[in-house]
């Protein structure tokens, strides 16, 4: 009888230990997921939080277990920015009963928060947060490509509709030119013809900018390319109180590019940098640094300024067609630059801090 009891007790202990091992295993899996997880019970008390979520909140895990929402918001270590996002999450998911809430953190990363509460959860609330920055970037790139394609079609239609009447007007002015010469007003004809030609040039530039032509590549030294671009902008920079400097570039570093198109991109970047510095004020000492570095099979050309900078929201729309912060800007310069670099199988990236300046990094394949 005693032997049977001991055997039953031993089996119970083994079953308990086995269950505990399984639970520890599952908890270990949850702790190391790439998604942040929090679990609240029916009373609103946090009963579980994994390592990832604690890192996102930038708070110690042990200080969070047992907290309710109010205590979490009053935690001495939580930032004001994160407090606002948690309140937004609560409002969207609990008050408005939405299952998902998308937001951007203070570092410019995109996150998708999902809340699960159902009968299967026994009254508990499961909050999970996943980094969706890569998916957002892919989505933004696809959206931008669609807009650029539409822009190309619109540009072609506009160019066709405007060029035809301009050609007719130009022809009639040439026919009328002898009569204007007789009246001593031949300069009128010349002014009209030159203005029509200028309008045609503007249309051509707009059409070309919205749909850059296939690159006509040739091998060029990065050092000589940057030197030439800086020489072209140096005098204008001095007039605007800016100083442009080039960090030493290895002479053997070469790229195969359409020189005209890449110059257009670099000149646009430097011009933007000068305007950003100019907006800070005349007393500000403007600095523009141009640099090229080798990274595996790519050359990273960077243009850094100490201008007014941009916030994360503005930075996210930077390469979108027609987006501009300038009063007289078209919003085409950076979207065209994006397309040109993409056509060269390269990438273009921007980072900025409001009030501290901006850096653009253009990555292009090395010449083989």
TrEMBL record:
Recorded GO MF terms: ATP binding; phosphorelay sensor kinase activity
Record-linked SUPFAM superfamilies: ATPase domain of HSP90 chaperone/DNA topoisomerase II/histidine kinase, Homodimeric domain of signal transducing histidine kinase, PYP-like sensor domain (PAS domain)
Reactions catalysed, as given in the entry: ATP + protein L-histidine = ADP + protein N-phospho-L-histidine
Ion transport keyword on record: no
PAS domain residues: 22-76
Originating organism: Paenibacillus apis
InterPro entries reported for this sequence: HATPase_C_sf, HATPase_dom, His_kinase_dom, HisK_dim/P_dom, HisK_dim/P_sf, PAS, PAS-like_dom_sf, PAS_fold
All copies of domain Histidine kinase, residue ranges: 157-368
Statement: the UniProt record of this protein carries the keyword Transferase: yes
Descriptive protein name: histidine kinase
PANTHER family the record matches: PEROXIDE STRESS-ACTIVATED HISTIDINE KINASE MAK3 (PTHR43065:SF10), SENSOR HISTIDINE KINASE (PTHR43065)
Keywords carried by this UniProt record: ATP-binding, Kinase, Nucleotide-binding, Phosphoprotein, Transferase, Two-component regulatory system
Superkingdom of the organism of origin: Bacteria
Annotated EC: 2.7.13.3
Biological processes per GO annotation: regulation of DNA-templated transcription
């Amino acid at each position: 009888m005693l032997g049977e009891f001991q055997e039953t007790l031993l089996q119970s202990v083994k079953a308990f230990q086995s269950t505990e091992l399984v639970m520890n295993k599952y908890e270990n899996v949850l702790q190391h997921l790439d998604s942040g997880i929090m679990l609240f019970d029916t009373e609103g008390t946090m009963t579980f939080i994994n390592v990832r979520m604690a890192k996102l909140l930038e708070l110690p895990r042990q200080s969070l277990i047992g907290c309710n929402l109010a205590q979490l918001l009053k935690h001495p270590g939580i930032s004001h920015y994160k407090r606002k996002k948690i309140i937004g999450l609560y409002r969207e998911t609990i008050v408005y009963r939405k299952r998902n809430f998308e937001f951007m953190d203070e570092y410019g990363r995109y996150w998708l928060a999902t809340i699960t509460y159902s009968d299967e959860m026994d009254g508990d609330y499961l909050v999970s947060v996943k980094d969706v920055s890569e998916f957002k970037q892919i989505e933004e790139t696809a959206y931008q490509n669609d807009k650029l394609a539409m822009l190309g079609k619109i540009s072609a239609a506009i160019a066709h509709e405007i060029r035809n009447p301009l050609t007719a007007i130009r022809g009639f002015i040439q026919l009328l030119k002898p009569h204007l010469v007789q009246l001593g007003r031949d300069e009128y004809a010349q002014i009209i013809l030159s203005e029509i030609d200028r309008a045609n040039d503007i249309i051509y530039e707009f059409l070309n900018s919205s749909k850059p032509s296939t690159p006509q590549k040739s091998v060029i030294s990065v050092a000589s390319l940057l030197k030439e671009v800086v020489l072209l902008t140096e005098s204008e920079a001095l007039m605007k109180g800016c100083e442009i400097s080039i960090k030493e570039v290895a002479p053997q570093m070469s790229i195969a590019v359409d020189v005209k198109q890449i110059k257009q991109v670099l000149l646009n970047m430097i011009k933007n940098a000068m305007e950003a510095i100019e907006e800070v004020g005349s007393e500000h000492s403007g600095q523009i640094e141009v640099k090229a570095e080798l990274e595996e099979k790519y050359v990273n050309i960077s243009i850094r300024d100490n201008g007014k900078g941009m916030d994360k929201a503005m930075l996210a729309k930077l390469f979108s067609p027609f987006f501009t912060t300038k009063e007289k800007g078209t919003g085409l310069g950076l979207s065209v630059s994006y397309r040109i670099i993409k056509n060269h199988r390269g990438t273009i990236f921007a980072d900025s801090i409001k009030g501290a300046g901006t850096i653009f990094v253009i990555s292009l394949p090395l010449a083989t």
